[in-house]
Amino acid sequence: MTGIQKTLLAIAAFVAIAVGTFVYFIANWDATRTQPIGATDNAPAFFSFQILRGLGQRPSPALTMRTIA
User: Fold this and answer.
1) C-alpha span between 8 and 13 (Å, rounded)
2) Can you tell me the distance from the alpha carbon of 60 to that of 51, in angstroms, rounded to the nearest whole number?
3) d(Cα 63, Cα 8) in Å, to the nearest integer?
4) pLDDT per residue as tens digits for the range 2-58
5) In sequence order, which residues have a C-beta less than 8 Å from that of residue 62 and are 6 or more positions away?
6) What are the Cα distances from residue 46, in Å, to 49, 51, 63, 66?
7) Whole-prediction pTM value?
8) Rounded CA separation 50/43 (Å)
9) Are 69 and 63 in contact (CB under 8 A)?
10) What is the pLDDT of residue 64?
């Protein structure tokens, strides 16, 4: 078996394992045991939309050591 054939065999084995584990995961999925991961009303926002700036507006000033300290 040449080096190219070994490489192709290793790639095929990796793909087969990846597809097999995905199929196993989907086949054993139980929606009643999981909780939704979507956003909820009581979840804190990651960032405030008020700080977002639109096009044509000045950028925020750079933070210096005097500003931080």
Assistant:
1) 9
2) 9
3) 52
4) 999 999 999 999 999 999 999 999 999 887 887 777 655 555 555 555 555 556 566
5) none
6) 9, 12, 21, 26
7) 0.48
8) 18
9) no
10) 60
CA distance 38 to 66: 40
Structure-block tokens of residue 58: 């000045």
Nearest Cα neighbor of 10 from 57, 42, 1, 38 is 1
Q: Is the Cβ–Cβ distance between 19 and 12 less than 8 Å?
A: no
The secondary structure element, H or E, covering residue 32 is: none
Structure tokens at 7: 């490489």
The amino acid that residue 60 corresponds to is S
Length of the chain: 69
